[in-house]
UniProtKB/TrEMBL annotation:
Pfam families: FecCD (PF01032). The keyword Transmembrane helix applies. InterPro entries: ABC_BtuC-like, ABC_transptr_permease_BtuC. This is Iron ABC transporter permease. CDD domains: TM_ABC_iron-siderophores_like (cd06550). It comes from Candidatus Methanocrinis natronophilus. Its main location: membrane. It is found in: Cell membrane. Keywords: Cell membrane, Membrane, Transmembrane, Transmembrane helix, Transport. The chain crosses the membrane at residues 27-48, 91-112, 119-143, 149-170, 177-200, 220-240, 267-294, 306-324, 336-356. Belongs to the binding-protein-dependent transport system permease family. FecCD subfamily. It is a multi-pass membrane protein.
């Protein structure tokens, strides 16, 4: 009887220690994400001060708080207009774009089980680029006015995704089928865009080239509201599948035995993430490496639990993108380097470092 009691006490003690260790790890994950959010806030306040108009960090925060609390802060009218109408929308747009690309990169790597998967693996960016080429060279667009290029980029990005997902639904939505279909569509739309470049005049070529480099300069409050509305619908839908993605990491057959339809989840994830990526890309152009690097950073720090990995990838993507944009705007001021170029310049060596320092086995192996 005494041995039974001692054995039961020992087991409960072990469970208690395991529970404490688990709770401590969960707390560390939340703390890390909160720390990155705090870093984004501080980084945003610093980036606002960079530019031709000399603005201090305190003036920047006062200009922002004066909008929330009118009359509570004394702010120079010019400073307030520059901060609120020019610099802050660009930063908020960069945060949303980086968050969306990071999240979509994370879920695409999970469903495709490929460490090189990103929002552009399925050719979404090349489809958007082709839409820009059609609008620039032929003048054909689904919208007019200020949304001439944006409308085409969004439509062709979604059409590209719809074609791949439709093909996968017919042939079976395996990760190999989707990757191969994405590569094929990517090459096709890239070739078509190059054909349009061949016949374009100087002004049309300049327009296509500048859009293809990727930039955050196009953001305004009206466009941010559109992106925020799409995110408010799509991000919770992606988070609902976090447990399914954890199960699918063990393989499609294992997931099926537990009751998770891997093919259906794969198509569901790709439909939602394609909508998010198309919304981001139509405003920013091609911005590479955010959707590739951010999920790897999050996975190395937090592990493979997608309940934490999905939001952490978005937060890290937002911080990397606004940091790269801040460098791009000021490294050779007054010349502004396109954000897409800077993310590639920073992303390539950083990704190589992660690859060399990372663990040998990842969740898809």
């Amino acid at each position: 009887m005494g041995k039974t009691v001692r054995r039961s006490t020992t087991r409960s003690g072990k469970r208690s220690k395991m529970q404490e260790a688990r709770d401590s790890f969960v707390f560390a994950r939340y703390f890390f994400m909160l720390a990155i959010v705090a870093l984004i806030v501080l980084l945003a306040g610093f980036i606002i001060t960079l530019g031709p108009l000399d603005i201090s960090v305190a003036d920047a925060y006062r200009a922002l708080l004066s909008r929330a609390f009118p009359g509570a802060f004394q702010v120079d009218p010019l400073t307030e207009r520059v901060v609120w109408n020019i610099r802050f929308p660009r930063i908020v747009g960069g945060i949303l774009a980086g968050f969306g690309l990071g999240v979509c990169g994370c879920v695409m790597q999970a469903v495709l089980k490929n460490p090189l998967a990103s929002p552009f693996t399925l050719g979404i960016s090349s489809g958007a680029q082709f839409g820009i080429a059609v609008a620039a060279v032929l003048g054909i667009s689904v919208f007019g006015g200020p949304y001439l290029l944006i409308g085409n980029a969004f439509l062709f990005a979604l059409l590209c995704s719809a074609f791949i997902i439709g093909l996968a639904s017919v042939k079976g939505a395996s990760s190999e089928t989707l990757i191969l279909a994405g590569i094929a569509v990517n090459y096709f739309f890239t070739a078509m865009s190059q054909l349009f470049r061949y016949f374009a005049d100087d002004e049309q070529l300049r327009l296509m080239t500048s859009w293809g480099m990727g930039d955050l300069a196009a953001f305004s409050w009206s466009k941010i509201y559109i992106i925020f509305g799409v995110f408010a619908v799509c991000m919770p839908l992606l988070m609902l599948k976090a447990w399914d993605l954890n199960i699918m990491a063990s393989g499609d057959e294992t997931a099926k035995s537990i009751g998770v339809n891997a093919e259906r989840v794969r198509v569901y994830i790709l439909v939602i993430s394609s909508l998010v990526v198309a919304t981001v890309v139509c405003f920013t152009g091609t911005i590479a490496f955010i959707g590739l690097v951010a999920p790897h950073m999050a996975r190395m720090i937090l592990g493979g639990d997608h309940r934490f990995l999905i939001p952490a990838s978005g937060i890290l993507g937002a911080s990397v993108l606004i940091a790269a944009d801040g460098v791009a705007m000021n490294i050779i001021a007054p010349t502004v380097i396109p954000t897409g170029i800077m993310t590639s310049v920073i992303g390539v060596p950083f990704f190589m470092y992660l690859m060399l320092k990372g663990r040998r086995k990842e969740f898809w192996t």
